Amino acid sequence: MKILLIEDNENDIFLIKEYLRLINFSNAEVTALSTSKEVREILKENTFDLALLDLTLPDTTGISSFESLMSCSPEFPIIVLTGLEDQEIAKEIIHKGAQDYLVKGVYQPKDLMKSIEYSIERYQWFMDRYKMERKYVNAIIKGAETERTRIARDLHDGVVQTLTISLLTLDLLIKKNPEFIEKNSVLVDKTRKHLKNSVDEVRNIAHSLIPNAFQNTGLKLALSELMEDIRSLASIKVDFKYDIVSENISEDKYMTIYRVIQEIFNNMIKHAQATECLVSFTQKENVVNILIKDNGRGFDLDSINIKPSFGIDNIQSRVNLLNGTCTLDSKKGEGTSYEISFPMN
Predict the structure, then answer these.
(1) What's the rounded Cα separation, in Å, for the pair 238 and 70?
(2) Closest alpha carbon to 81 in 48, 111, 49, 45
(3) Which end of the chain, N or C, is less packed with Cβ atoms under 10 Å?
(4) What tens digit of pLDDT does each residue of 43-98 get?
(5) What is the sign of the dihedral through the CA atoms of 273, 279, 342 and 207?
(6) Residue 6: which of 45, 39, 41 has the closest Cα?
């Protein structure tokens, strides 16, 4: 077993290693680090089976120590080591994703053993449930995309064609009956205008359900067309930057990204009252980073923690399907930003 021990007190490090020996974990490979910065560096290239985290470190304390570790997206259970006075903070951290906590100076070797066994079992249960939920959500989203595609094709191949034929038929009648048309020119012009508007409207609906550019050319062009729609229809000045060197991304991920951007802009148009927005796609090695930032009115983040928002939950669910992370930042009067990162493979 590989254990990451995040602790800056040499006496506590010695005690934990001795306890591990007493509970038959003497063969465990223990890596002891004293700062959150060291942890972030080692997790770039290494993984572990378990972490023991002291909340009071030289560069971070309390919840910040846990959040610093979680920012590395660890794929292992975490046991928090805390003092008597910090038990409430430890309990709060349990709700944020840690598996268990131990009180320094109080726990004994058997308590450590039970905590390790419990944490591993709890983490495995959580991961099994998480995979099941992701599979369920993925099935729902794929089903929705299939239905979107079907409706879009039905609209394009059915309704649009019928309306187009009706428009052509009207034009033929106009040519064959000039006297009737002259007497009813206002009515005919109005009818022709309604038919043409209906054709355009249904085409736009079909396009929003599944953009032709996405099917034919890929994500960049589909997003470019979406940005152009936002500029013209919502009067938002969009600065779109796309710097992806390699587009080795599956079609499912393409569509998921597109839907995430669509949902963010839907929220922006409905609530933000923004006039300007930056949309930036960059690539660092195998990771795609997306930044979307507007100059809208913003909102209080605490309010969405209390009152769930379907749109934001939908964005997070789709980002989860990408094995990515989404950081939302907003303040009243200071706009809103989304930072999204996900692996290409």
Answers:
(1) 33
(2) 111
(3) C
(4) 988 899 999 999 999 999 889 999 889 888 788 999 999 987 888 899 999 988 89
(5) positive
(6) 39
- Cα 159 to Cα 305: distance, rounded to the nearest angstrom: 42
Structure letter (DSSP) for residue 269: I
Q: For residues 278 and 239, is the Cβ–Cβ distance under 8 A?
A: yes
pTM (global) more than 0.90: no
What's the CA gap between 322 and 316, in Å, rounded?
A: 10
Nearest to 219 by CA among 140, 301, 290: 290
Distance, in Å, from the CA atom of 76 to the CA atom of 287, rounded to the nearest integer, reads 21
Q: Which residue in 320, 254, 247, 250 sits closest to 286, CA to CA?
A: 247
